[in-house]
Automatic annotation (TrEMBL):
Domain Histone deacetylase residues, every copy: 22-315
SUPFAM superfamilies noted in UniProt: Arginase/deacetylase (SSF52768)
Organism this protein belongs to: Longimycelium tulufanense
Bilayer-crossing regions: none
Metabolic or biological pathway, per its Swiss-Prot or TrEMBL entry: Ketone degradation; acetoin degradation
Signal peptide: none
PANTHER family membership: HISTONE DEACETYLASE HDAC1, HISTONE DEACETYLASE HDAC1-RELATED
GO molecular function: histone deacetylase activity
CDD domains, per the entry: HDAC_AcuC_like
Family listed: Belongs to the histone deacetylase family.
Source taxonomy: Bacteria, Bacillati, Actinomycetota, Actinomycetes, Pseudonocardiales
Record Pfam families: Hist_deacetyl (PF00850)
Zinc listed as a keyword: no
Gene name in the database record: acuC
Name the UniProt record assigns to this protein: Acetoin utilization protein AcuC
One of the protein's GO biological processes: acetoin catabolic process
Amino acid sequence: MGARAVVVWDGSFLEYKLSEDHPLNPIRLDLTIRLARELGVLDGVDLLPPRPAEDEELERVHEPGYLAAVRAAPAADWDVGHGLGTPDNPVFDRMHEASALVAGGSVAAAEQILNGSTHRAVNIAGGLHHAMADHAAGFCVYNDCAVAIAWMLAQGVERIAYVDVDVHHGDGVQAAFYADPRVLTLSLHQNPLTLWPGTGYPEELGLDGAEGCAVNLALPPGTNDEEWLRAFHAVVPSLLARFRPQVLVTQCGADTHREDPLAELSLSVDGHRTIYRALRDLAEEHAQGRWLALGGGGYSLFRVVPRSWTHLLATVLDRDLDPNTPVPAGWVARTAPIVPHVPLPASMTDGCDPGWVRWEGAADTPVDRAIRQTRRAVFPLHGLDPDDPRD
């Protein structure tokens, strides 16, 4: 076994820029790496440069005609379709190359885990979980999460669990493996009645032969740290214990934060840090320590994402940061001129206590009803009692 963890990073990831004013601005990635460096999180860490995904790797998930459309779109003077050229997914120069690099970065991270170089790997540029087989969606051109999972399956991995904590439903990954019993997809997201893409109901369970391999926990707007964590622990650990994954893949979107402009959950950076630590513990307990962590959504570009994902990097690297750690003055000085009217955080905490109380089954809050709906839909398919808090 080599390094305890691998971080995939190169400045070329910043070329995945949909437009100048698009919410998915790659500056969030740059600021995250700068903050992690200034805090010493990346000291002595050799960053692994990504390489573009090959067509064969992309075509395990995406249709060849879609790849051709992505390649053609920047020079085309016609509507190439496939969800390209929309406000969510505008066409940009070198779109195929930039998108393939993100996907290839996630495959490279997975390769490091499977070849024994590391137990854990992280690609914060990844997590583009909405892209479908034949079209772009939700800011995502190629679905690097699904491409990395499909690559691992092709290498002979028999069971992979995918846990998606983004505020939006992990619809593209669910769709890619909806009939594949080798992949357990678990998505915790804002209720689809209140947020795009409008999917991710508890009744979405997987097709014949893979029933119960799609798990959806739809949480009401306003869900806070304590409620979110109670829901997570009421559903995810039991299912992972039954499924026994050989690798845990996580999409770690930071758009569940209360300041995110595109959604309505109410988590804190402290809650995010607690989530990442819980995912690490679950990988150790149920996946032989093999953990592939990917980025995802997050649109509070300056105040939230850099702190949240610096905590993610620190967690993957076993360099956990004290939440009260000050944000370095150098990072603030470099960032403040970019957003002169946005007050930048002073420390790595929002001052919240992310404690939670174990689900006991009797409460009747909106969050507890959501827990109950998911458990009753999927737990029996795994031989678990949905009404027994011990399961």
